[in-house]
Amino acid sequence: MSMRTLSLVLSPVLAVLAAASLPARADDSVVALAAGGLVLEKTDKIALVSEDLYLSEKAVRIDYRLRNLTDTDVETTIAFPMPDITGDPERLASIPDPAHDNFLKLATAIDGQPVASQVEQRAFSLRNGKTPIDITDRLRALSIPLVPTVEATEEALRRLGETRRLALIADGILVRQEHKDGTLADVPLWRLTSTFWRRQVFPAGREIAVRQSYVPSLSGQSSLSYGSPDLDPPRKAQYANRYCTDPAFEKAAQALYRRASADGSRAFQAYEQNLSYVIAASDKGAGPIGTFRLIVDKGDSATLVSFCAPNVKKIGPTTFESILKDHVPQRDIDVLFLKIGTVD
Question: What is the chain's mean pLDDT, rounded?
Answer without folding.
Answer: 82
